[in-house]
User: Fold this.
Amino acid sequence: MVKMNINDLYTDTDVNTGENIYYWDSSLEKPYNGVVVDHFKGVLSWEFEVKDGFKTGIERKYYDTGELMEENMTDHNTIDGIATEFYKNGNIKSISIVIRNVFIDTISYDELGNKVGKTSIAESDISYSLIKDKIDEYREKYHIDN
Assistant:
């Protein structure tokens, strides 16, 4: 798979998400397919897969010291599937089921790996009506209560 530095690609704005759409060319006619990487002070800070110009696949963000900070499943410039945050020691900080950037269920852990809580989207949440028909499907597909 092709890997490109974020600064070597051309971008346009996705009007639906406000995120970038990535292109090979300045005329924005050839969408990029591959992996995008970004570095901060020589250390990998961000990498993500792109399909047809859109962030689709796995996205990883790193602490400035190089440890994995987040790993997200993405689709068409949104977090969609499982989103996981990590402490610098490598233990999971939280794991969530997400539908198009809307967090459905999140389990949180302390730095030692002990479960400290669970939150779920409320029917009163402004985003609930947008994704309510997919909640059971995603909970069945992504089991985070183990």
